[in-house]
Each structure stands twice: as structure tokens, then as C-alpha cells.
């Protein structure tokens, strides 16, 4: 108890290091934050049938991995600021690809398992979602959190499973949550998560969300902080739709080019 209190106090007063590369920095240094400002389409290696159109703010590789793990597993909750800004960028890009006038955006956090919530003592995806909402609104993207999904049943930890095993493990994982019924008419549904690897989780979640949206013109979309790179590091989606390029001007520049602004706001 005393030890943990001391640790918490030390965290408050001692200079911290970049969660990505370890250089002295408040949260993420400029170089590491820049790695999360290169949006690309997520392309799982074995593209699951029904995988939603998904944009990641960067590659889940290099310093991005320890940065996300520090936030997710090691209690560096302050990283919600730069990582939530990265998620906002991914959301802005994926919704900009939908033709037509801007629509309300409902961010649907992928629910963590009860076991994960118990171990971590917090819901890190909802923390990212809340931050992304804050980042998006000043840039004319009316986003709000919509907790439309919840977990059901028991799922074993997916660590160490193959992509096929993960799919089987996840079958029937999610169901619609009755609590989340306040989505504006015509809203774009954007699943949000920290990382996409095999794509199984987002595919399962999108199937549940899309089940009662047969009449909807726009598919369920997804946005993540980082995606496991499929090709060589640095590969970026070359063929972004025109709409993406046009509306990229609406993407929060503070999240793209000047990560320090996000840091300073803390
Ligand atoms: Zn760094």
C-alpha cells in the first residue's frame, strides 16, 4: 500500500519518459507521436470475411507497441491524450471516405472482457473513445460515444491462438446492448479499439452491429490507434478515396502534426 502510494506520488513529481522510445518526454516524444499520424487502411494478413473498412492512425510496430502497452497494461493512463488524438485522426479519415454530407458519428467502443476489466481496473478503450470525442468535436465532426455492444459468455484469452482459433473463440462474443439505443438517425457507426491484429474482434463486432442495419447505405466502419502492418514498415494506403483527401483538411491538425499541443493540454 505504502509502496503503491509512493509510486503514485513519484509519478506525479518525477520527469517521465516517452512511452515509445524512452527519451525524456512527458508522454510521447515528437518522433513517436508522429508514428501515429500516418493513417492507413488496416489489412489483416488473412483478411476475414466481413472485416469492416478500418483505418489505423499508425502501424503497430516499433515504439508504438510499448507506447500502447504502457497505456493499456502498465497504468500510464495519461497516454489517453496522445493515443486518443491518434484514434480521432483514424475516425476522421474513415468517416471522410463516406460520400455525402457529414453525418453524426457514433463511436462504439469494443467492450473489454470482464476479466480484462478486473485485471486492469479500468476500461482503456472507453478512455480512448472519450478522448477521441473531445478531439473530434472542434473540427466539425459531431461524434459521441455509443455503447451499443456488450460481451456475453466466457471467452478464453486470445494470446497464442491462431487467426482461425481466435475467430472460433470469439464466435458469439458480443451482443447488442439495450442501453445504447440513443444513436441519432443516420449516424455512422464506427467501432473503435486500440489495436487490430487478426481482425477477428472487429469482424465479429461489426457483424453484430450490422445485423439490424440492412437498410443502411453506409457500412459499419472501424478506427483503431494502430494496426499490425501487413507489408513492409512504411507501407501506406496509396489509393485513398478523393473524399478522404478533401476532408483530411478537417482532420484535427493538432493530432497530426503537433503532438505537443495534445501534451500541453494535459
Ligand atoms: Zn519517443
How would you describe this protein?
This protein is an alpha/beta fold. The chain has one domain (2-264). It contains eleven helices and eight strands. The chain has helices at 2-13, 30-34, 64-73, 80-96, 114-120, 124-136, 163-170, 200-210, 242-247, 253-256, 259-264, and strands spanning 40-41, 54-59, 105-109, 143-145, 149-151, 174-176, 188-196, 221-227. The strands form two sheets. A six-stranded mixed beta sheet has the order 1-2-8-7-3-4, with helices on both faces. Strands 5-6 form a two-stranded antiparallel ribbon. The two termini are 27 Å apart. Residues 233-266 have low confidence and may be disordered.
Largest beta-sheet characterization: 6 strands, mixed
Distance between the termini: 27 Å
Bound small molecules, by name, code or SMILES, are: zinc ion
Helix/strand-derived category reads alpha/beta
- Share in helix: 25-40%
Q: What integer value in Å does the Rg equal?
A: 18 Å
Strands side by side in the biggest sheet: 1-2-8-7-3-4
Unreliable runs: 233-266
Q: Output the number of helix runs.
A: 11
Number of strands: 8
User: What would the average pLDDT be, to the nearest integer?
Assistant: 81
- Can you tell me the overall shape? globular
Count of folded domains: 1
What percent of residues are in strands? 5-15%
What series of H and E elements makes up the topology?
HHEEHHEHHEEHEEHEHHH
Amino acid at each position: 500500500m505504502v509502496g503503491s502510494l509512493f509510486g503514485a506520488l513519484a509519478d506525479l513529481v518525477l520527469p517521465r519518459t516517452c512511452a515509445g522510445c524512452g527519451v525524456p518526454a512527458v508522454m510521447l516524444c515528437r518522433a513517436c507521436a508522429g508514428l501515429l499520424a500516418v493513417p492507413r487502411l488496416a489489412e489483416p494478413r488473412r483478411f476475414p470475411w466481413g472485416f469492416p473498412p478500418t483505418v489505423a492512425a499508425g502501424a503497430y510496430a516499433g515504439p508504438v507497441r510499448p507506447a500502447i502497452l504502457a497505456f493499456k497494461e502498465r497504468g500510464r493512463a495519461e497516454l489517453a491524450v496522445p493515443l486518443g488524438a491518434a484514434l480521432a485522426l483514424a475516425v476522421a479519415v474513415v468517416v471522410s471516405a463516406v460520400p455525402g454530407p457529414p453525418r453524426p458519428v457514433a463511436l462504439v467502443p469494443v467492450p473489454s472482457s470482464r476479466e480484462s476489466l478486473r485485471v486492469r481496473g479500468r476500461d482503456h478503450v472507453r478512455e480512448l473513445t472519450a478522448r477521441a470525442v473531445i478531439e473530434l468535436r472542434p473540427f466539425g465532426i459531431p461524434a459521441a460515444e455509443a455503447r451499443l455492444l456488450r460481451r456475453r459468455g466466457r471467452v478464453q484469452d486470445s494470446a497464442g491462438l491462431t487467426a482461425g482459433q481466435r475467430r472460433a473463440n470469439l464466435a458469439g462474443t458480443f451482443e447488442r446492448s439495450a442501453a445504447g439505443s440513443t444513436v441519432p438517425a443516420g449516424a455512422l457507426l464506427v467501432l473503435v479499439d486500440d489495436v487490430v491484429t487478426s481482425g477477428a474482434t472487429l469482424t465479429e463486432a461489426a457483424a453484430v452491429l450490422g445485423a439490424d442495419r440492412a437498410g443502411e447505405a453506409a457500412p459499419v466502419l472501424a478506427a483503431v490507434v494502430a494496426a499490425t502492418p501487413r507489408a513492409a514498415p512504411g507501407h501506406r494506403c496509396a489509393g485513398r478515396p478523393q473524399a478522404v483527401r478533401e476532408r483530411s483538411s478537417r482532420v484535427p491538425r493538432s493530432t497530426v502534426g503537433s503532438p505537443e499541443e495534445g501534451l500541453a493540454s494535459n
